[in-house]
Amino acid sequence: MVISMALTAEYSLMIFHFNSKLIILLIIASILLILSTNSSAEPYLAYKNNLKCMACHVNPNGGGLRNDFGRIYGQQLLPSKAASYDTTTLAKLTQFLTLGANSRFNATFQQNENGDKSQGFALSSTQIYLNIALPKTGLSFYLDQQVAPGTAINREAFVMYKFASGNFIKAGKLFLPYGLRIEDDSAFIRQSTGMNFDNSDNGVEFALDYSNTTIDFFVANGTSQASNNDNKFLYGIRAEHLFSNFRVGTTAMLNDGDKQVQQYNIYGGAHFGDFTLLTEVDYLILSQANPFDQSDIKQLVGLAEVNYQWQRGINLKFTAEYFDSDLDVNENQQTRYSVVAEYTPFANIQLRLGYRQQDDIPQKPQQNNDLLFVQSHFYF
Amino acid sequence: MKTLLKTLLILPISLVLLACGAGNGENLNDQGRPNTETPALVPPENPPSDPPTIDPNIISANLTSIQAHVFTPICSSCHGGANPAAGQDLSTIENSIANLINVQSSNPLFKRVLPSSPEKSYLYLKVTGNEQAGSRMPLGQPSLSDNAIKAIKNWITQGAIVPDNIMTPTQINNVKITSKKVDSVKAGTNQQQQIKITITFNQAINFTTLTNEQISMGQYINEQLIPIASNNISFNIINTHNLTVSLTSDLTLTATNRRQHFNLLLNNPNLSTITSIAGQMLDGDLDGIDGGVFSYDFSL
To answer: Sheet harboring B294-299: ordered strands across?
Structure first.
């Protein structure tokens, strides 16, 4: 049902042509999954558990520092082998001061249609998180600082006040709540919308938080990490509701200015046994963005992802992405397919092996490339 | 049973996910835009200081070439569009100039591009994966080719020169005509024809430089151009790039059963000239040189 939302009429109208390599990979993966007799009930994170992001993360919108439950989940439930230690004493310096970290180290091999190859090791990113929660006030200060590679870059720094009702307000530099908060910043839905972990903004967010529903209202400069360059702002609202085994959300955003940008999406997820499905479809209207005749450009972006928990600690992820950079232009679509195996042998370390194929029009050979990567992800 | 359910679930999903393919690029240029969006410009009399690359497949150490080969096709997928990463829009050469040269980077030690100093330019450090600049660009994509990196380095070393012809001539690149018949309240006429001409400029226009006198129209009658009274002509500014000119003509005064031929004149240099918001004069006659009257014939 949720998948069908992602695969809109646009999809169905497209010319079907299959990628033999990926089909073979997926069939092999399917056979492996079918043959597996050791599947467990390990959930795929929040969507699998039907929990809100704030169940595991200090930041209610997800990502970054984990709270007590998230930390225990990462130690006891996520890995193949539960930890025999508890990092709480390390993470919680005091009852009110908490530290955390993420670090990703990659080995990659890439090749584009021109035959250009690149390969090597790279420290992808390392973040340190800090949260100071003042006792009995509902007030906290949250810091997300990228410390490597290179010089430190602040990603988030905000003050948050939580009301007794669960509603909260944040002010400062923050990632705006928008659609699925997937980790891969290069995904089309994150890249084309600019709503990713590389692109925070300065603003204010207010959220109404009910048991199964969260509604976020936000206002920001609309200039990403830069200061406001006009008197106009970015306005947005996101609403999300959790049902028994699936959730649906929607976001509407207006970045005001000389050239307005409107962004709308619908997203959701569902879980069926060991499968967790995620999907998001974005529709963007970029006013006067066509440099030729200053007409508006309308874009459609989609992502559909299937996660299969093969065994405890092993998750297989299949992702299909679609990007039409101008709905008024034919045959300009881009696609990207990924197959990723995530293995968490023990607490605080996850290994990822992935293959990703990105296809664009033949006139852009640089954008037609294959990527093979191995990633180690340390989380704390 | 469980195995069967898994099979039924995963195989259809896998096939559906693979059902979409990239576009075949038919009738698109190397930027993924329709070939029809290439304006037919008259070559300027004076060659620009930043000559076009002879082989379009070879990247050169000038901004025009770097824009065409790197910034637009690769960087602007993130640094462009709805919400450019780091507020740094590289989708057009004008944006690249505005967002790169002598602009402070996120690292206070570096400008994004410091002319003549590639090693102190964040852009160069970023594309070479220098530790001081954080994640290597392009993020999540293959590194730029050696030739592309070399071109960027040499362009910065040579002073990050902005081509003289960066200021693309301010021109009218689209005219759209619509007309409709309306009932007239004027005595002696049965119907009137309202003609609406939508004019699109390729640059943002300073419309305070536009006056009623700069717009004139005429109608060809017996091959003679007869001026139309200015009080029948009005204009409306839609936005910085679009203008509509409206004309109301009496059908009883014209041969309604034959095609009518009109002429629109804009930007008469004998009066004054329209300028872009950057102060560039409108190249009305499309000769690549600022100034000149825009004359447009059309028939209904």
So the answer is: B224-227, B215-221, B261-266, B294-299
Task: Please name the member of B15, B22, B74 whose beta carbon is closest to the beta carbon of A359.
Answer: B22
Contact A334 B6 (CB under 8 A): no
Q: Across the interface, do B173 and A359 touch by the CB < 8 Å criterion?
A: no
Considering the entire predicted model, what is its pTM? 0.72
The set of residues, in sequence order, having a beta carbon less than 8 Å from that of B12 and lying 6+ positions away, is none
- Sign of the CA dihedral running A148, A153, A155, A159: positive
Handedness of CA B72, B74, B78, B79 (dihedral sign): negative
| Sign of torsion over alpha carbons A46, A49, A52, A54 | negative
Task: Report the length, in residues, of chain B.
Answer: 300
Q: Chain A: residue nearest B5 by CA?
A: A34
Q: Among A7, A150, A359, whose Cβ lies nearest the Cβ of B134?
A: A150
Contact A292/B202, CB-based, under 8 Å?
A: yes
Q: Does B58 touch chain A (CB under 8 A)?
A: no
Q: Which residues 255-284 of B have a C-beta within 8 angstroms of A?
A: none
> Which residues numbered 85-124 in B keep a CB inside 8 Å of some CB on A?
85-88, 92, 106-107, 109
* Interchain CB distance below 8 Å, A334 and B23: yes
Among B285, B211, B265, B205, residue whose Cα is nearest residue B238: B205
Neighbour count for residue B25 (Cβ, 10 Å)? 18
* Model pLDDT for residues B162-210, shown as the tens digit of each residue: 876 666 778 888 888 888 877 655 545 566 778 899 898 888 888 888 8
B147 touches chain A (CB under 8 A): no
What fold characterizes domain A2-379?
Answer: Porin (2.40.160)
Report CA-CA distances (Å) from B210 to B216, B272, B280: 12, 8, 13
Dihedral (CA of A307, A311, A312, A316) sign: negative
Separation CA B30–CA B55 (nearest Å): 14
Sketch the domain layout of chain A as residue ranges: 2-379
* Cβ atoms of A39 and A48 closer than 8 Å: no
- Partner A contacted by B194 (CB < 8 A): no
Name the residue in chain A with its Cα closest to that of B15.
A23
**pLDDT of A4:** 37
* Phi (first) and psi of residue B250, to 5 degrees: -80, 125
Please write the tens of the pLDDT for every residue from A273-318.
889 999 999 999 998 888 777 789 999 999 999 999 999 999 999 9
State the angle between helix axes of A20-35 and B2-17 in degrees (0 to 180), rounded to the nearest 10. Answer: 160
Peptide bond before residue B138 is cis, with ω within 30 degrees of 0? yes
Distance between CA atoms of residues A81 and A313, nearest Å: 8
Which of A267, A99, A101 is closest to A177 using CA atoms? Answer: A267
Nearest residue in A to B93, CA atom: A291
Identity of the amino acid at B40 = A
In which element (H, E) is residue A174 found?
strand A168-174
